[in-house]
Amino acid sequence: MILKSQVEWALHCCAILSGLPEGRYLSTKALAELHGLPKEYLSKALQSLSQAGLVLTTLGPSGGYRLAKTPNELTFLEIVEAVEGGGRTFVCNNIRANNPCRPKGYCESSPCAIARIMWEADEAWRAKLRSVTLADLGEILAQDIPPDIWKGTFEWVLKRAG
Amino acid sequence: MILKSQVEWALHCCAILSGLPEGRYLSTKALAELHGLPKEYLSKALQSLSQAGLVLTTLGPSGGYRLAKTPNELTFLEIVEAVEGGGRTFVCNNIRANNPCRPKGYCESSPCAIARIMWEADEAWRAKLRSVTLADLGEILAQDIPPDIWKGTFEWVLKRAG
DNA sequence: CAAATAAGGATAACATTTATCCTTAATCCG
DNA sequence: CGGATTAAGGATAAATGTTATCCTTATTTG
Predict the structure, then answer these.
(1) Which chain A residues touch B125 with a CB distance below 8 Å?
(2) Is B11 in contact with A114 (Cβ distance < 8 A)?
(3) Both ends of chain A: CA-CA distance in Å?
(4) Residue of A50, A93, A77 whose CA lies nearest to B9
(5) What are phi and psi of A45, to 5 degrees?
(6) How far is B27 from B35, CA to CA, in rounded Å?
(7) What is the crossing angle of helices B5-17 and B134-144, to 10°?
(8) Residues 6+ away with beta carbon under 8 Å from A53
(9) Scanning A113, B94, B118, B160, which has the fewest C-beta atoms within 10 Å of its C-beta?
């Protein structure tokens, strides 16, 4: 059970977009170059973000993407679910219903106990991702990344942002 | 990102095995019939449990599986990881290293901040699963399942247990 | 009008999951 | 001892999902 690599790509792209000045846009091409990713396929991840309403787009030269909200309003969970989908990791096929000892037409009152427990674990995962915003990430990155690399990247981005 | 259905199968099988009297074994065939599952493929899931040391096996007629520990020593996490593997759901491909603004040969000091956050969410998921034992599940099932079905299933199992 | 862009459809390569079949070695029972 | 039953595991195939590429369309900029 592994998340799509598009999740990783979307998170990194949002991290870059969160440093973009107000009203400017960054293209798929620039984001793909910056991360060494296939432009066409990265585009699908960005489209998912767009469909989820997390980013805004413009067309034409100088077009591209920018965040639809401020970084402290955008959570990891929103980004992950935009790309990966909001479904649960545990799918209950209700195999208890195949138990030959059950009376015919027997109807369960509640979801399977095993599924309920697995879903609680899913919810713990989601709760953690919901608690972290892009702004939080920005603070961590500011400490992680050497200032000169951070600055160089920022200038590289600004040069390409429409 | 969906867990293998074998995870569901393994959990249900362990739930049944946890009700088995001391020293008796239940075969793949019986477990497959009880849950309406393909015997040969279910066998792979049970082999995973065996390799992880969660169940004990015997060969020959009257052979099969029983738990290697008491139900209150066996956690959901152990069962899930035996089948699904213990890896993380988020794989970091370190795409930040592709950033053209980095000096050549630059070496990161710590894992990517995005990966660290995603891994914390994974750990929250695992922590929840680690906190629930088969004994806990048994208590919930005892309340969920009507006594006559529970009793009928138990007798069905005992009739087939070696 | 020409170039650049996002959006999205079609398709293919690749990996994983799901399943089936077969062989081997061990165990039980008559 | 011999036949039946079982777990273990290898080989293979079908089904599904992920990753990737290509192409068309509509929009925007200059």
Answers:
(1) 121-122, 124-125
(2) yes
(3) 38
(4) A93
(5) -65, -40
(6) 13
(7) 80
(8) A68
(9) B94
Angstrom distance (rounded) from CA B155 to CA B153 = 5
**Tens-digit pLDDT profile for residues A44-94:** 999 999 999 999 999 999 999 999 999 999 999 999 999 999 999 999 999
Kindly state the greatest CA–CA separation across chain A.
71
Q: In the structure, how far is the CA atom of residue B27 from the C1' atom of nucleotide D10, in angstroms?
A: 21
Which tens digit of pLDDT belongs to each residue from B108-129? 778 999 999 999 999 999 999 9
Strand D nucleotides, any atom under 7 Å from protein beta carbons: they are: 3-10, 18-23, 26-30
Burial class (CB in 10 A: 0-12, 13-18, 19+), A101: middle
* Stated pTM of the model: 0.94
Enumerate residues 6+ apart whose C-beta is below 8 A from B47.
none
B121: left (phi over 0), alpha (psi -120 to 50) or beta: alpha
Closest listed residue to residue B66, CA positions, set B24, B106, B121: B24
- Here the tokens at position B122 are 């994974």
pLDDT, tens digit, for every residue of B7-45?
A: 999 999 999 999 999 999 999 999 999 999 999 999 999
**Which residues in chain B have their CB less than 8 angstroms from residue A116's CB?**
140
Closest CB from A103, A117, A149 relative to B137:
A117
CA dist B22 and B67 (Å) reads 9
Cα–Cα distances in Å, from A142 out to A19, A29, A52, B31, B118? Answer: 11, 25, 28, 54, 18
Chain B residues in contact with A89 by the CB 8 A cut-off are 1-3, 89
Per-residue burial over B8-45, b if 16 or more Cβ lie within 10 Å, else e, is bbbbbbbbbbbbbeeeebbbbebbbbbbebeeeebbeb
Partner residue facing A1 (CB), from B9, B89, B116: B89
- Is A7 within 8 Å of B35 when comparing Cβ atoms? no
